[in-house]
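Case study B.
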Amino acid sequence: MAAQSGAKRHTFWEILQRIDRRWIYLVVWLVVMVPLIKPFPVKPVASPPVQQMFNYIDTMPEDKALLISVDYSPDTQAELHPMTIALLRHAFATRRRVGLVATYVYGLGLAEDALREVKREFDSVATSHEDSIISGEDFVFWGWTTPLLTMMLGMGEKITNVFPVDYYGARTESLPMTRHVKNYNDVGILVSIAGSSMPISWVAYAQTQFGLRIGCGTTAVSAADFYTYLNSGQFTGMLAGMRGAAEYEELVREKMAQMDMNWHVRNRGTEAMSSQTAAHIAIILFIIVGNIGYFATRRRKS
Amino acid sequence: MKRKLPLLIVLVTGIFGVLTYIIPHPVVQTTDSVIRNDILRIIGAFSLVLGIGSILRHHFIKIKRKSENWGYSWITVVALFVSAVIGLFGGIDPTRPGILPTHIGGFSFHIQSLFTGLIVPLGSTMFALLAFFMASASYRAFRARNFEATLLLISAFILMLGAMPLTRLLVKELPSFAEWILAVPNTAAKRGIGFGISLGILATSLKIILGIERGWLGGGE
Amino acid sequence: MALTCIVALLFCTLAPPGDVAARDVPNDEGGKIVVTWTRSPDPSVVSYRVLRQAEGAAEWDTLGIAGRLASRYFDEEAPNGTRYRYKVVAEADTLHGESETSGYAQAAPQWFNTGRIPTMIGAAIIFLIFLYTFERARRGAKMFIRRIAGLDAVEEALGRATEMGRPTLYVPGLSSIDDVATIASLNILGEVAKKTAKFGTPLIVPNRDPIVYTVAREVVKESYAAVGRPDAFNPDSVFYVTDQQFAYAAAVDGIMLREKPATNFLIGMFWAESLILAETGAISGAVQIAGTDAVSQLPFFITACDYTLIGEELYAASAYISREPLRLGAIKGQDYNKLVILALMLGGTLLALAANIRITDVL
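Model:
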């Protein structure tokens, strides 16, 4: 590659400056893959926005439901799906009612997958009907509808008008949970988990017009965009990227341990932390090497 | 007329949009709801038909002309038809089968299995490319060329170090300093840009409603 | 408090909630009455049951239950024009305490939302400033607009594509038509298409949203017609790809690597795919002009593209390229409005500071 062809004429730093980007790809691949296969222990410590969301959900009135809006597609699944799972786990462990919607069609499969996984975890240790997680009683998965604006505004008035049947085809009017969760007045917080600007749409419509409390789960790339909303109090907490997911998982793990719910679950966000840490270190090293090379070659030229 | 009619529709619906914000009366709100729910849904459905027509035409032309890589066009066309047929008639998953038999032995090809087996890994792969591109872009372009670039570099360093749980053990204050950078200087800059963007949006909307901006009509008079 | 409890126990009742009042919910589309009360002083209250009686009816119906901390309830099933009165009953197990009956109230829709007057005043000021600058522009006033390098480069970039005999790629963002950034992008597409029509450079416009696709197609077609080259318009140049974010990114990356466009425009709304598109474009060796109001994507575009329109520059672009006076007037209007906002912010900050500083501190 370019590195070899330039070796006769250029210094070491110049070669580094012109290195073929595929070498960089290879290093990134290695630093991500190796810790995934052989992870080193990393204990996530909750940052203030994560702690804020956890505390709110943990202490909100028992009759208020948690709404999760699955606003992401499979592309961002690795970063965002652990958040949905951790939130569901937290809600079911503290016996909060949960409502789920998807604003993209692709979110349907993901929401269903998260529900299935967490339901299975709880059902596998359940000893009675009360301990089990029941669709329509403990949670309702309303599914997806269009247009978006109609859904966001309509749910503030009456959820069953927007979703006459749930994702599984059951009539929502007849579901036991509908007696308790009729519109946004019965919702403690809505957490919009998204790789896009969907949480802002929820703020613009559901919060501005109905006073609904909004939390946000987002990719690390988009997180910087949302701090404005966090500072202004429009978001009650934020989970940013894989790290945010891992921190929430850790808080839920501690909470469940306190409640003697010590069964084994997979915390995918935490599992990926060592990989992410290694990748961060690699990128920092890339930047350092790149800059040393830049200054070395600049001095030589001058 | 071809130009005046769209401009008139835009003017009327633009003014109506403002009215819906200040008039809560059902006469206005119901009309708004009909426009947003029913009319937009119908337009959306028809445009989707046009969109599918477009993708088919685009690829059939490629196949017909045997353009470069025309074989891939066949894959697109076949995938489009197969997933449409499975989606419409093949059922959601093995517990909710459709009218078509959509499994061979243990191998299921319901819409849910297409989703988990194809869309999920393909989408994740594309997103994962970001890590590689970010590394190569930071290596190539992240240089302390001048004062501003150096400042940017230092903040990026602090943020990346702050994001690592390991650094919390080494320098306790680093994560909160990283959080501060995001919450204060970053937010301040974003708000500044945000004001400009909001005014830009207002100006563009106003130009369109008043018929000053006609770029969307192809420009001209 | 102790006395209240003893009295309550003696009579098997709770202290009732007081001051029950009902009134039409203001600024709404009708059909709602709000019932308010002061909470019972009794600490054992668990919930409040809200009862309703229509005028002329004999029975009281239960409307719903409110929590012990609640002091209001929205009756959302009150037909407009029907008069109702309400009672609120404090409850705890078998005990209860019934309030006095409220006066009659009826729901009615309103024609004006008074809660939005401040917003309307703000909007009116902004609107008037824009009208003023439009009028000045119409009268031919000279307006200074600072140079925007990314837009100055458009002509040069298209010229390069023509010289190299390669196409130009225009990505109108990934959002839908209700996103103003998409509309701004389509406005710029109109100007770019006019230039590609003049130069005879092939133009490729892949779309993610079917409605945006139909509009983009019309824009390009009309632009070709506007410069007298309707024959040069290739209907296959504007096409729909998919609404899936990363499948779309993959398709556009494919076009960049196979067709090797000499110039890439990435203008509109972008999310996490921004760097995937921009970096692939950089690999293919194209001159890239990006523009977005998605602030978090700007660093990626700045890193990987040759020119980037930042935030509001995106909205100024079509005016800048076309140099049409009225459109330029809008840019000036934006600047004046920004001055007003800055003055308000400064004034607000000074007032807030003044409120927190004691005169003795200053002395």
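Chain B has a mean pLDDT of 86. The remaining cases will be described in the next quarterly update.
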